Amino acid sequence: MTDQERSAGAVREEEKGRDRRFPLGRHHGLSDGVFSIAMTLLVLDIKIPQNLSSQAMVEALNKTALPAFATFILSFYVIGSQWMAHHEMFHDIGYADRRMSLFNLQYLLVIAVMPFPSYLLANYGGQPIAVAIYAISIGLGGLMRARLQWYALSNNLLKAGVDPKAWRKDAINAVVFGLVFICSAALAYISPIATYACWFVVLGGWAVLSRTGVFGVLKQRFGRK
């Protein structure tokens, strides 16, 4: 065998290694572990100083614990929604290749770091930089999830029978979700309250419309396809 043939064979073996496809068991285990730890760590931000009098404790609960608890609820809902979307996504994926695994790790990196922007929002919720960091973190999560969906769709990683049109629509929704949150980071420097209102509309309104079937009713009523 000549050196050129050996070199060509090595290239083919390397390409074969890159194209290997793996079962999803370990992806499920790692992903669920990251989500559960991130959601659990959120509660550590809810605390008040020790050895307080009754009146001081009431003040601490109102000024410190209540904002932290509100942020905990928001972040728990956000991460929980991302977990549900991730769970549904991987239910439709048949297997993963090396690049898909890398993209999933990058997505999990955003999830794992969420307790930090949540801490910033709980303690500095009136500061634009804290609100902006939180918004960008959520937005990046949406965009990373959309990238996973597009890659799986474009590289034939979906299970047989999965509707590619529905997947493409869900990926577009994830992109819109991510971009809205990233854009809301700029709004934080104008009014943090307006940014919170934007989040409420996106998270609350979107959830209500999609879960109650209002989109389906409108589609039937006006004949949208």
From TrEMBL:
The keyword Membrane applies. The chain crosses the membrane at residues 30-48, 60-80, 101-122, 128-150, 171-190, 196-218. Keywords: Ion channel, Ion transport, Membrane, Potassium, Potassium channel, Potassium transport, Transmembrane, Transmembrane helix, Transport. It is a multi-pass membrane protein. Pfam families: TMEM175. Residues 1-22 have a biased composition (Basic and acidic residues). InterPro entries: TMEM175-like. Residues 1-24 are annotated as: Disordered. It is found in: Membrane. The keyword Transmembrane helix applies. Belongs to the TMEM175 family. This is TMEM175 family protein.
